[in-house]
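Internal ticket #5521
Category: modeling
Description: The requester needs a full-assembly model to guide mutagenesis choices. All entity lines are attached below as received. Residue total reported by intake: 457.
Assigned to: D.W.
Attached entities:
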Amino acid sequence: MLTKRIIPCLDVRDGRVVKGINFEGLKDVSSPVELARYYSSCGADELVFYDITASAEGRRLFTDILTETARQVFIPLTVGGGINSTDDFDRVLKCGADKVSVNSGAIRDPGLVGRAAKLYGDQCVVLSVDIKRVDGQFRVFAKGGREDTGMEAISWIKRCVSDGAGEVVVNSIDTDGVKKGFDLEMLDAVCNAVEVPVIASGGAGCIDDFITLFNALPKVDAGLAASIFHFGEVSIADLKKAMAAAGIPARI
Amino acid sequence: MLAIIDYGVGNLFSLRSSFAAIGESAVVTGDPGIIRLADRILLPGVGAFADAAEKLRASGLADVVVSEAGKGKPLLGVCLGMQLLFDRSFEYGEHKGLGLIKGEVKPLRGYVPEGLKIPQMGWNSLVFGNQPGTLLKYVKNGDFVYFVHSYYAAGCGDSVIAVTDYGAPVTAAVQRGNVFGCQFHPEKSGEVGLNILRAFCEVAP
């Protein structure tokens, strides 16, 4: 049986992981390579590297570190951040990324998803969407959740999936950082609209939030989180055990 | 030395890195001379069957792979590279494969129960067949590997050495003599995947 995936997300700036992560046994708490290796050994099913670099030099450092990680870590790697063109896809795929996540780049250039899917295959294109409720509607936000695009989220997602997005990451701005659980209502709406894998993001605060997610919405394929893993609030090994105990298929 | 066949399909970075990680020297090459010199061959592949089969034939490498495998050289096809080993595929029409293993490639849609997502994307467990032997000697029945595929190999008879359960048994790994195939990506399947590559590298040429 296909297992539910658990995916830690690392924010990387100038080739270093932002917010030093504190784990026993890690020598360099901001090294993406060390952290990737650590997470892989704990049972992470995939990793997301999110590049928040602003400069060209920082971008070069990012691709260097991505290459180094892909040489040493043999689980799927997704790269997001600063993906605005098929050249950007090419740049990170050559460095060992398996999937590429687009967000604002697709909003600015709605043809990007289709072109990338044609070149690299649907399985390679991940649509990431920041969604917030505005006047009773799910609205797509751009620029890291700061700007309301006015677009309705479900129709945006459907459009991108029909263009070739092979997976959708749903990040609820409404629950993000609150640590009271995933946005089940929003995720349910997305799961009912598309047939591709849906990854839940935003809101997890404890192990039970993942159990609730997968029990309530069997169509959700994966849960993604950042700080709760990095700060050790949730250990991936414990989470996987708890999932298995609750009858949720998990890779242990 | 192992030759990873480069015929313009897919990203070979991870495969090359995986062999480096297990201490096996591997070259990515489209040169028939080097492929003939190699001890073993890895046939990768991502994308559409027809396109990949056409590229492999047009480059002349299909003949090289078939004749080297015929001489007993160990060959491992990965993902679409595995699907190419069979007689034919029904992915958008009917297309001829390399015919190294009996069987044909069919869509998962219509085979697995309604409601399951296509492609099968993610980690699923190996269920060993009768002869997991050579390729799976360092992994356990039930170990997880990473799949991304919309088509599967059918009618492979006793060549199937492992299946995976995606609502129906789906061919996960095959062997016919010195010819092996994995539907999953060993280069993305953590330690389990590396152990499968390790076992392949120990198959005597």
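Resolution: model delivered.
Comment from assignee: Chain A has a mean pLDDT of 92.
Ticket closed.
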